[in-house]
Design a protein that fits this description.
Keywords: Membrane, Transmembrane, Transmembrane helix. This is Heavy metal transporter. This protein is α+β, with helices and mostly antiparallel strands. It folds into two domains: 4-28 and 64-219, no CATH class; 254-381, no CATH class. Helix content is 31%, strand content 8%. The protein has ten helices and eight strands. It has helices at 4-15, 66-86, 90-104, 131-136, 138-146, 168-176, 188-198, 266-279, 316-331, 333-336, and strands at 254-255, 263-264, 283-285, 303-307, 338-343, 346-349, 355-357, 376-381. Strand 1 (254-255) and strand 2 (263-264) form a beta hairpin. Helix 2 (66-86) crosses helix 3, helix 2 packs across helix 5 and helix 3 packs across helix 6. The longest helix is centred in the N-terminal third of the chain and has 21 residues, at 66-86. The chain starts with a helix and ends with a strand. Residues 1-6, 8-39, 44-62 and 219-235 have low confidence and may be disordered.
Amino acid sequence: MFDEGDLGRGFISVARRGWFAKGAAALAVLGVASLLMLAPFGGGTTTQAACRPGAPGQGTDPNAKGPLRVLQITWAKLIDSVAVERGLPGKATLIALMTALVESDLQNLTYGDRDSVGLFQQRPSAGWGDAKELVDDPKKAVEAFFGGQGPGHPPGLVDINGWPSMPMGDVAQQVQQSAFPDRYATREQEARDIAAAAGIDLTRSGNPYAGRAGAPPGGSVVDGVQDNSCDQSGGDLNSGKPVNGVWPEQKATVTDPTGTGGLVTPRTAAWVAEARKNLGTLSMSCWDAHVWNPTSDHPRGKACDVMVGADARKSAPARARGDQIANWAIKTAGQTGVHYVIWYGKIWSARRGTWIPYNGGGVYNPTDATGGHFDHVHVSLW
């Protein structure tokens, strides 16, 4: 977290540039939001699912209000102005905002870990530029984050091949090389809120490699990059943000309600009951010995497979049913403790919040109907 000293220094740095007629340092009053979990699923305070404790910039930090939010909106406008000047899509702005929120709480700091400074806590010793310039001319810091400066400079966003189709937190991590890579994705919603307050169009199309020193991948430019372009499975199967939750460890102590004869955790049994109540008749099984893969969640009583009746690649009804099941599992993950979902060749996790291609986990053939999860939806619980 950041203190009132950060806020005061941030206002002063803005005022010195003439962006505010009067600069004022103030203490933002922050309210800690409580996480409300449904009792049957075992919500508590032992394990935080979305991010590791003990480092700044967590997604569970309370949103800024008052003077700090005003300051953040000002810096957001500056970041977006650089993106617009370059011709970058709105998604580039969103990733930059997510990154700056983690690194500096979207403030132009004159200090940081070791020699890190500025909005993105860039290190001069790592080649990001002169410390004084990065702070006194924050547009240079933004330009450096977006990248394209060629050899001798750390790679920025436009230097990452295929970044528009990557999870946004992963793009930020490739630029920042942080010790806490999971932090970036947790700030997406806050970044969106700030962008909305700043009047920033995050759906803006553009050249995702604008300003790149070399030719873009494939030698061509992709125009019209859309926000959340993660190539999801189908339906609206993308929550677009991580699901924060506190889920204490549970042992398998309850008889599997799907009739396998094994034991599952209370959280898994509760999920089965909710799924049946909301999705109607389901063909599913949870516990399984999985002797070929003892590390699976099935023998630990933490996973269920819900069958869709056919290979969804060849059956529209099966595809629609699978989409329905996966959508419901994701939308209720914050209340039920869903850890990840695998469906139709892709995997969604609560930590990431977006779908990525499923590689088979090193055990199954991902092109097979069962191995690639085209005939069933796999749901794992924390």
